[in-house]
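Quick one, tokens below:
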């Protein structure tokens, strides 16, 4: 005889329920990635929290729960993008290389990072439109940047003590020299490329420019 189990049958009641998955860190990361895309495409003023919610299949309420406001979410995007480059710079181990090789490694890394991360360049351009108002709200960005500046300063001092580099170099000036070229060729690639009819995405052009900025920096700092 076959027994039919009813809705209150012990066998049915005992069936285990599938646990509900809840991963706050993954949710937060997904929101950040969607926000990067939205801010890059629309800027801070044009970005909409509704659009970010649609990109992540979540809700505005959830976004506000994690970040409080659109502006605070934008600050977190800045922190993430600056954090990505600063944390990688920190792993270059410049102190393990001869000073000239360390400088070359830093320049090549900066060149490649900007070339591969146009979102970072775009967000920095947007932040400059806002006069750095939101960078001011994140002491962590300044702290991370100072760590990298310190590593560069130690490399320059080491090269100076070894008689390889000029005396009296200003670290932040060298940092600006490196960053400016690497940043400009990405931030202005469309206008510069069109006006002067040069394809800045061409691999041969990239390699030529990378070699050029390495040589320019090393010639500037070398005795």
């Amino acid at each position: 005889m076959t027994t039919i189990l009813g809705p209150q049958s012990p066998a049915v009641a005992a069936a285990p329920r599938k646990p509900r998955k809840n991963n706050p860190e993954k949710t937060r990361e997904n929101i950040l990635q969607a926000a990067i895309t939205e801010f890059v495409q629309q800027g801070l003023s044009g970005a909409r929290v509704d659009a970010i919610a649609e990109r992540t299949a979540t809700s505005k309420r959830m976004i506000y729960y994690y970040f409080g406001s659109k502006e605070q979410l934008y600050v977190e995007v800045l922190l993430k993008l600056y954090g990505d480059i600063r944390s990688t710079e920190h792993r270059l181990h410049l102190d393990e290389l001869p000073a000239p090789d360390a400088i070359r490694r830093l320049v090549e890394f900066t060149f490649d990072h900007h070339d591969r991360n146009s979102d970072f360049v775009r967000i920095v351009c947007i932040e400059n439109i806002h006069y750095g108002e939101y960078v001011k709200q994140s002491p962590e960005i300044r702290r991370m940047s100072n760590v990298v500046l310190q590593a560069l300063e130690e490399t320059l001092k080491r090269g100076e003590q070894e008689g390889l580099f000029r005396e009296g170099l200003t670290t932040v000036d060298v940092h600006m020299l490196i960053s400016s070229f690497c940043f400009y060729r990405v931030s202005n690639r469309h206008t510069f490329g069109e006006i002067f009819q040069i394809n800045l995405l061409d691999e041969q052009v990239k390699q030529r420019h990378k070699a050029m900025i390495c040589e320019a920096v090393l010639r500037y700092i070398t005795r």
